[in-house]
Amino acid sequence: SVLIVDFGSQVTQLIARRVREAGVYSEIAPFSMAEEAFKRLDPVGIVLSGSPASVLDDNGPRIPDCILESGRPMLGICYGQQSLMHQMGGEVLAGDSGEFGRAFIEIGDECALFDGLWNVGEKHQVWMSHGDKVTSLAPGFRPVASSPGAPFAVIANDEKRIYAMQFHPEVVHTPDGGKLLKNFVRHVCGMAGDWTMAEFRKTKIDEIREQVGDKRVICGLSGGVDSAVAAVLIHEAIGDQLTCVFVDHGLMRMGEAEQVVSLFRGHYNIPLVHVDASTLFLKGLEGVTDPEKKRKFIGKTFIDVFEDEAKKIGGAEFLAQGTLYPDVIESVSFTGGPSVTIKSHHNVGGLPERMDMKLVEPLRELFKDEVRELGRELGLPDIFVGRHPFPGPGLAIRIPGEVSRDKADILRKADAIYLEEIRNAGLYDAIWQAFAVLLPVKTVGVMGDGRTYDSVCALRAVTSTDGMTADIYPFDAAFLSRVATRIINEVKGINRVVYDYTSKPPGTIEWE
Ligand code: XMP
């Protein structure tokens, strides 16, 4: 395995992800616990992360001596490079300007990290983010790449198998960064690269068993992929010590609530309490038109219902959640210098504190596509695992204005037709999210010999990698007119269909 020593960079998880992509198991340990992790894991190699701190501060984090003197291959990234130089006899100085953002480095010499990738004399794009910089190298190191702002952009000590770089190879803005990390774990550390999601599953199952012991766990299902994957994994670890509670607000897409119930009860035989709370939710939403009020009401009611059910079940010490890594980091900003905001996001906000429960969050290290892979590994059907993301408040935020059961039924039908056509056209997986919106606007139409006066339906489809930014999906006109015709012909209550051409930013993906 590879041990990643975390000095507090907000992208340390990305290092772990890139190492996983290279087929090698990695664990992250905060620098304060790195010594213990090193002894427990006995890693083949070590990666030292970036940090908002400065090695020039008296209390800047340090590489533990046992790691520094271990003789294992090491890769220092940004602060990791600076701390290697600082602790091994080189020099680091505060830069007067720093370098933030895209930079080009020139390859000056050969190096194991560049094998099969970069050649001497070439220039390559990397992502820099540093104030301090290395100004003289520790004995045994040689520079192998430089940039105008960082003469020691990449350095190497082949004898000790220690390499370090000023830039961040783990972020996508360093296009070859994943390959550099792969060269480190494969060529420098000599690891086989045969680790898979199947191994992750085993490791997590052991961890869950260790954390939970013989105590009971409750998991709130939202109907989405993340909470379902978390629940199936936890059930595999602790069996019927887990009870799932599915709070059904009646604002899911067509057939999805049923799918969750049959999957859990039928396929996996996981104890599931299915609470049909649709009347409670829809009654409470009567007269509510403000989007924030809708969201708040739904969030609060979800917690109330869940808490009631949890009390009925009784005796659970743990609450399981499908929190993903992007929920853990709120913003990834390289330009903001040392002050970073990191916020833990609770899908059922405030509940663990209120009920005095501990959290089990086995997906905290994963990104959406990795959760899908894990879901497939656990045998969840493709059609379920590959589902587009769906917001917690459900269709309520796709019905601007007042929500009602009738409107939700109309929207569900239009949405199902739209998604069916997208699947038939083979486009579902190329789209991040596609959905219909039912507008609180009526327009005049003519059908057969009669006049109609019905609602407008808007269609939205976007591509995205993380939901933070999005582009519209450019359907061809024939596709859109086919969908529009079907919706107007088949869904009573809709007589006009429009397509939303707004990217994010400036729009958001959802309409509310
Ligand atoms: P926006 O509309 O902010 O959405 O561009 C970005 C992504 O987040 C989803 N979304 C939510 N997910 N609870 C959720 O669990 C919410 O309240 C919520 N609001 C938006 C949205 O579907 C998109 O994938």
Automatic annotation (TrEMBL):
Catalytic-site annotation from UniProt: C78, H168, E170
EC number: 6.3.5.2
List of residues binding ATP: S222, G223, G224, V225, D226, S227, A228
Pathway: Purine metabolism; GMP biosynthesis; GMP from XMP (L-Gln route): step 1/1
Coiled-coil segments on the chain, per record: none
Recorded GO CC terms: cytosol
Keywords of the record: ATP-binding, Glutamine amidotransferase, GMP biosynthesis, Ligase, Nucleotide-binding, Purine biosynthesis
Phosphoprotein listed as a keyword: no
UniProt KW Ligase keyword: yes
PROSITE patterns in the record: GATASE_TYPE_1, GMPS_ATP_PPASE
Pfam families in the record: GATase, GMP_synt_C, NAD_synthase
Catalytic reaction equation(s): XMP + L-glutamine + ATP + H2O = GMP + L-glutamate + AMP + diphosphate + 2 H(+)
GO molecular function: ATP binding; GMP synthase activity
Residues annotated as domain GMPS ATP-PPase: 195-387
PANTHER family: GMP SYNTHASE [GLUTAMINE-HYDROLYZING], GMP SYNTHASE-RELATED
Function: Catalyzes the synthesis of GMP from XMP.
Subunit structure: Homodimer.
HAMAP family in the record: GMP_synthase (MF_00344)
Protein name per the record: GMP synthase [glutamine-hydrolyzing]
